[in-house]
Specification:
Elements (H helix, E strand, L loop, with lengths): L8 E4 L6 H6 L10 E6 L6 H13 L8 E6 L6 H15 L5 E7 L1 H12 L5 E7 L9 H11 L14 H5 L3 H7 L11 E5 L19 H10 L17 H4 L11 H4 L10 E5 L15 H14 L10 H6 L9 E3 L3
Parallel strand pairs: 2-3, 2-4, 4-5, 5-6, 6-7
Antiparallel strand pairs: 1-3, 7-8
Length: 336
C-alpha cells in the first residue's frame, strides 16, 4: 500500500480470471456507495493460499455482482495492533464512510481485523467474519518454546527468535489484548461480527483421526496442536483453535461485543452471532474457509446483510428469527 509499509500489502484482487468482476466495481469517487470484500489470511499463509477457493466462488455469485474484492497481506510476525493500525489506515484511505465493506478473515487475520476496528472508527466496515479465529487465544505460553523447537529445521524460523515475535506471542493472549483496549470498544458498535468454527474434533471424533492436505509447517503445527495430545484442547476444536475460543460468548473476558451478547436491549441490537452448520463438524483449522458449504454460508450472509437478496438489509437478529434465509440447516447463537 505505502512505501513505509514494506511488509503490508492492501490492493484490489485483480487476477486475470476475475478481471471482469473487478471492472464491474464502482471506482472511488463515482456516485453511489461501493461494496467490497476484503480478505485477511492467517499465520504462515497469504491471500491466495487462504482464500483462493472462496474468492473464486464469491466472484462467480450472481447476487454479489458489482462487489469489488481486495486482499490484505501482512507480516504475521508483527504485533496484532501494528497490523491492525495499518489495515485501518488502508481502509480509511480507500473507502468513504458510506461505502459498505465486509472483512472476511481466517485465524490470526480476524485478530488483526478486530484491532483495526478498535484503532479507528471505520464507518465503512459493516460486517466482519471470524473463521476459525482464536479470539480467546490459540497457542499457550508454555508451548511456544516447544513449537519453536519443532519448527527449527523445518523452515526459516530460528528457534531462538521465533518465541519473541510479537504476533506469535499474542496468539496466547488474544482475550487479554482486546480487554486492554476496552476504552476503544465503542468503535466497534456499528460493525456486525460473525464467528464460524471448525469442529473436526468434536466429541465423537477419534483423537487419532487425521485430516488431509496438510504438509510442511502446517503439518508441524498440526502435529503439535492438532490432536489435542500436547495442549489437551477442549472439544469441539478444529485441531488448533477450540470452538470456545472462536465463540466470543464463551470467553471469560469481556469483549467489544459484550453489549450484544450479554446484555442486549432488544433483538434488534445484536451485532454478534456465532454460527455453525453441519459441515463445521467436518473441517479442520486449515480447511474451514475452503469448505463449499461454509463459503456459501458466508456468501448468503453478506448478501442478506447488504440488502442484496430482498432489497433491504437484514440484521443478525432477523437472520436468527428466520434462518431459512440462509438456505441451510444452521444454529445461530446470539447470547451467552
Amino acid at each position: 500500500m505505502a512505501d513505509d509499509m514494506p511488509d503490508f500489502n492492501f490492493t484490489p484482487w485483480t487476477e486475470p480470471t476475475v478481471a471482469e468482476a473487478a471492472d464491474a466495481a464502482t471506482p472511488l469517487g463515482n456516485a453511489g456507495p461501493r461494496r467490497a470484500i476484503v480478505y485477511l489470511h492467517g499465520i504462515f499463509s497469504d491471500h491466495g493460499n487462504a482464500f483462493g477457493t472462496m474468492h473464486a466462488r464469491l466472484v462467480a455469485a450472481p447476487e454479489l455482482a458489482g462487489v469489488s474484492h481486495y486482499i490484505c497481506d501482512y507480516d504475521y510476525f508483527d504485533s496484532l495492533w501494528t497490523n491492525g493500525e495499518r489495515l485501518a489506515k488502508a481502509l480509511s484511505e480507500t473507502f468513504h464512510a458510506d461505502d459498505e465493506v465486509v472483512l472476511v478473515t481466517h485465524s490470526m487475520g480476524g485478530l488483526v481485523a478486530r484491532c483495526a476496528i478498535l484503532a479507528t472508527r471505520l464507518e465503512c466496515v459493516r460486517l466482519l467474519f471470524l473463521l476459525g479465529t482464536p479470539n480467546g487465544g490459540a497457542i499457550r505460553v508454555s508451548q511456544v518454546s516447544l513449537l519453536a523447537q519443532l519448527l527449527h529445521g523445518t523452515g526459516p524460523i530460528a528457534a531462538a527468535v521465533f518465541p519473541r515475535k510479537a504476533g506469535i506471542m499474542q496468539l496466547a493472549h488474544a482475550a487479554d489484548l482486546f480487554h486492554q483496549y476496552r476504552a476503544l470498544w465503542g468503535n466497534a458498535a456499528h460493525v456486525d461480527y460473525v464467528s464460524i468454527p471448525g469442529r473436526y474434533y468434536h466429541k465423537d471424533r477419534s483423537a487419532w483421526s487425521r485430516t488431509d492436505g496438510i504438509t510442511g509447517v502446517t503439518l508441524t503445527l498440526t502435529s503439535l496442536l492438532g490432536e489435542g495430545r500436547w495442549l489437551h484442547l477442549s472439544r469441539a476444536h478444529d485441531g488448533i483453535v477450540e470452538e470456545a475460543s472462536n465463540n466470543l460468548t464463551a470467553l471469560d473476558r469481556m469483549t467489544e461485543k459484550w453489549d450484544s451478547y450479554a446484555c442486549p436491549r432488544d433483538a434488534g441490537t445484536h451485532t454478534y452471532a456465532h454460527i455453525r452448520i453441519p459441515e463445521c463438524d467436518e473441517v479442520s483449522h486449515h480447511r474451514v474457509q475452503h469448505n463449499p458449504a461454509i463459503i456459501d454460508l458466508v456468501r448468503t450472509i453478506i448478501a442478506a446483510r447488504l440488502g442484496l437478496i430482498s432489497g433491504k438489509p437484514l440484521s443478525l437478529g432477523c437472520l436468527a428469527r428466520d434462518p431459512f434465509t440462509l438456505r441451510t440447516p444452521v444454529e445461530i447463537q446470539l447470547t451467552r
